[in-house]
């Protein structure tokens, strides 16, 4: 199914999206994918960004954690990385440490389980490695042990303690969902009123079926640590208005005039047409540089003669350089290594992206540490059977583009922190993806703040918090003392800055 066919479906716009957030209609999308449009729709009035204070204020960040990150379905990994019972991977999102493990035994044998990485005894992390394999997880503080289903199997010297029940001291579970394509999501909300995954991301699973995730295998991961707010990165991810200026490699790989962002249901689909082999994307200046390079026996070559899978030139080997003195070869007719697939790129609210190409797909997880510090984690999966050179070329291309975005974020955040800039005007079409996700952020924050004011006297309500044991009769009274002293995290929300 081509992007144009997908875009022609009805109900592209989620019900909760109001008319102030512009989206592309089906005719406009089809035109961007290669169809002919007779008339162009008029541009709607633009809107401004959220206030700059939302990119550096710690109170806003703490409210975002409660309203968004502790109440959303968050992408983590792919199920293919869990090959045998006991395989686990640890994660951390907005301060919450957790791990996912492949269980063994019982009714859930072989299923993936997610647990808070907190021992029920004294809160020490049960898992301390980033990954490993074990069907028995032992806390290195006092030796409490849990099986792969999170059940407490051993608590040293507690056998004779009156009133102690191992069944009441299992690891804290986290809601988990695995799509039929193998994408793994978690939701930290500990309540019973969590929006089901297929309702939260209505339509996502069907769109992901366009790509055969089973034909790919894990290749590598890497991460970057940035001094910027998580939204600084998402702002750039949700538009390609900046691509012709900031991403020369990406700009030569895709026809940027076809780039579209289509908001759906808490996710966005990105579309663009890939440059096919034989299509000339060089500017006049680039052509002159290539000709000059040839005259001086340079080892560089034009993109049209390159075998680069993404349509932009790769460095010649010494053998290729020597051969360049020979008569020019016949016009290259082999297919682009990227294939005919234009790509499946999806933004997943609030902080994730899944980007699929022919030779590989990768995920990006934008993990907020504080209001001005963020970790970017990338997992790359390559097509089974492709050669190492193609893998390396994809990784090199990806890292170059992501580093360009990283540098944009670093410098942008520095100016945001200064307080000179307050808000900016967004293009209604080129930046409609930014408008869409920022509206989701705004609405979630306002809704949660109103909930805290109406139900808890303005004190924080954290959906991820798990109620304490009813056996601890003093717990509620002692917690009340803490609340009365305003020592609970995030209680002093103050007024929202607009």
TrEMBL record:
Residues 279-337 are annotated as: Disordered. Pathway: Amine and polyamine biosynthesis; betaine biosynthesis via choline pathway; betaine aldehyde from choline (monooxygenase route): step 1/1. The keyword Nucleotide-binding does not apply. Residues 279-294 have a biased composition (Basic and acidic residues). SUPFAM superfamilies: Bet v1-like, ISP domain. The keyword Phosphoprotein does not apply. It catalyses: choline + 2 reduced [2Fe-2S]-[ferredoxin] + O2 + 2 H(+) = betaine aldehyde hydrate + 2 oxidized [2Fe-2S]-[ferredoxin] + H2O. Residues 73-164 form the Rieske domain. This is Choline monooxygenase, chloroplastic.
